């Protein structure tokens, strides 16, 4: 097929069409009426995601479908209610209560979902941690909000530096017979629990729900706290953007430690009563396609890097699987290049719908609705009820077509409740007054309202859709005895969007060698996480710096790197 600049919607009936029935939007207050709490005002995300469906007679529907190399486990909504109730009882019995911070550090597995939902039943603020975090990444997060509890397993406990975490009162393990005797074994405790007792702590719409740590270009990761009110937008985007219907089997490939894996891997699909697929293990083209085939995935939410990795595998793996049940595909986290959209149309006979949002925004804001034309290269248009603008540096709204700061008019239901212990950081998102939230992204808008992503206005790195703060990596690099100074940037990469590249100045008496560079790379990888470790390290004599404050000019490093890439491609 010819490559079109605009890809019209494919045939089909979509929720957004029937819900709007010719209107442009529905007021948030009207959407609230979809919830059981709209009269009392007292809410609980876990009730709306699980218990409510059982009360409505859908207890036998499959809620979670887990697959991993030969293993499979299906859990109905009724079983999920019982499990989250009994886990919540175990937590409650051991002192966990509303507004406590509880971290969940588990692999992609139903127990991760159960742990998160059980804690939410108690009104706890849950901090899901990415499964590949190493000691220091775990420590920074738990220590920052003085987390009192963690649910993990004995294998991952090795990466929880207990000696540095004096705030941790109780460790819950998912192992039946852990060697670590100071922890509480959830399976053991469950034997003593009455499985019929329901637990729900009714909370206010603005009470804390979850905390996700996220990087900026300066300082350590910041704790972004969300409130239960986020469910209003998470539900409706699940309905309109993911287009989830009763018969859908839905797979979001992100780990719940990332905001996408939590919001669109747990909350949005369960609020919409979907069957949620959980794939354990790492990326592998065959096992991904097999997951889609075996579980009958109909709606699939992933990221450009994953699609590019599948494209790079060629069509052989694709040809080995029957993906005919797939009907809707979406993408998030990094720019979706037109090539990927054309690949979807040509090989899967489906459009890939880009969506834009951030940890801070709590839910999708700029989207490609299934009913709208897609312009490859654009992130789509604002969700109904959402207004966007492009600002110049002084807070003036720019004319169409010009590149500037992407801003969203607030508030919307899912916007963050706050930045933990950092009011100044929160205020920094609103430099032009409380009305407009600035994303930190640069973008432009065309005459039809389509928004085109143009990059970041800061030095944040986006590798495989994962947000990496250069400061965090630089700080770790200079802890290595050989490294005197470090400047870290995102270097453009055809598969991962960007890769982490470090420029380092060596201390006296150290000489560059492949072994030393590998040692430095592993030093970061072993302490932060694999995705934060520089894939490339270049030793330089000195780093470019600002004249007055002596700050490293990452922009200059990046500009030079991009120049070099251009020369290679000439
Ligand atoms: O730069 C934008 C990029 O990811 C940032 C948000 O990262 P994070 O908080 O980790 O959330 C990721 C997923 C919700 C944004 O500021 N980003 C996100 N989606 C897109 C994107 N860049 C281009 N296109 C997108 N669709």
From TrEMBL:
GO terms under biological process: acetyl-CoA biosynthetic process
Top EC class of this enzyme: ligase
Report domain AMP-binding enzyme C-terminal positions.
472-547
Q: Where is the AMP-dependent synthetase/ligase domain?
A: 53-420
Looking up PROSITE patterns in the UniProt record yields:
AMP_BINDING (PS00455)
Return the SUPFAM superfamilies for the record: Acetyl-CoA synthetase-like
What Pfam families has UniProt attached to this entry? AMP-binding, AMP-binding_C
Q: Which family, according to UniProt?
A: Belongs to the ATP-dependent AMP-binding enzyme family.
What's the name of the protein?
Answer: acetate--CoA ligase
Biological source species:
Lederbergia lenta
């Amino acid at each position: 097929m010819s490559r079109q600049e605009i890809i019209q919607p494919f045939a089909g009936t979509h929720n957004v069409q029937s819900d709007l029935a010719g209107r442009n939007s529905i007021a948030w207050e009207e959407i609230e009426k979809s919830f059981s709490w709209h009269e009392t005002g007292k809410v609980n995300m876990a009730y709306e995601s699980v218990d409510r469906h059982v009360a409505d007679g859908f207890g036998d529907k499959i809620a979670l479908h887990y697959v991993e190399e030969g293993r499979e486990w299906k859990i109905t909504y009724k079983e999920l209610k019982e499990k989250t109730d009994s886990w919540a009882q175990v937590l409650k019995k051991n002192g966990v209560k509303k507004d406590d911070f509880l971290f969940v550090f588990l692999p992609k597995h139903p127990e991760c979902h159960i742990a998160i939902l059980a804690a939410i039943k108690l009104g706890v603020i849950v901090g899901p941690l990415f499964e590949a975090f190493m000691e220091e990444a775990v420590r920074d997060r738990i220590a920052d909000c003085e987390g009192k509890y963690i649910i993990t397993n004995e294998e991952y406990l090795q990466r929880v530096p207990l000696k540095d975490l004096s705030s941790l009162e109780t460790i819950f393990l998912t192992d039946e017979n852990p060697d670590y005797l100071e922890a509480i074994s959830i399976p053991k405790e469950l034997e003593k629990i009455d499985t019929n007792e329901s637990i729900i702590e009714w909370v206010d719409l603005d009470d804390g729900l979850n905390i996700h740590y996220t990087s900026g270009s300066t300082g350590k990761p910041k704790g972004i706290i969300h409130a239960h009110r986020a469910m209003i937008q998470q539900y409706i985007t699940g309905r309109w953007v993911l287009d989830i219907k009763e018969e859908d089997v839905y797979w979001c490939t992100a780990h719940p430690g990332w905001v996408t894996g939590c919001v669109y891997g747990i909350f949005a699909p369960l609020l919409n009563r979907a069957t949620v697929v959980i794939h354990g293990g790492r990326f592998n083209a065959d096992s991904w396609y097999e997951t889609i085939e075996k579980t009958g995935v109909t709606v699939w939410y992933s990221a450009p890097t994953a699609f590019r990795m599948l494209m790079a595998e060629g069509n052989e793996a694709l040809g080995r699987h029957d993906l005919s049940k797939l009907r809707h595909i979406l993408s998030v986290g990094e720019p979706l290049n037109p090539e990927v959209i054309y690949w979807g149309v040509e090989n899967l006979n489906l459009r890939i719908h880009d969506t834009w949002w951030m940890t801070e925004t709590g839910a999708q804001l700029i989207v490609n609705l299934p009913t709208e034309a897609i312009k490859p290269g654009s992130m789509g248009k604002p969700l109904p009820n959402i207004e966007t603008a492009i600002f110049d540096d002084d807070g003036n709204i720019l004319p169409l077509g010009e590149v500037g700061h992407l801003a969203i008019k607030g508030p919307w239901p899912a916007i963050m409740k706050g930045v933990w212990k950092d009011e100044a950081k929160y205020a920094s998102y609103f430099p032009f007054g409380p009305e407009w939230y600035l994303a930190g992204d640069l973008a432009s808008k065309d005459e039809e309202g389509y928004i085109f992503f143009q990059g970041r206005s800061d030095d944040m790195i986006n590798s495989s859709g994962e947000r990496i703060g250069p400061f965090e990596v630089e700080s770790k690099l200079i802890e290595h005895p050989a490294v005197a100074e470090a400047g870290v940037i995102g270097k453009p990469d055809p598969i991962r969007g960007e890769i982490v590249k470090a420029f380092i100045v060596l201390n006296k008496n150290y000489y560059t060698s492949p072994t030393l560079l590998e040692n430095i790379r592993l030093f970061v990888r072993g302490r932060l996480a694999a995705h934060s470790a520089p894939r490339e390290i270049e030793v330089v004599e000195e780093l470019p710096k600002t004249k007055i404050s002596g700050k490293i000019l990452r922009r200059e490093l990046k500009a030079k790197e991009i120049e070099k890439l251009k020369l290679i491609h000439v």
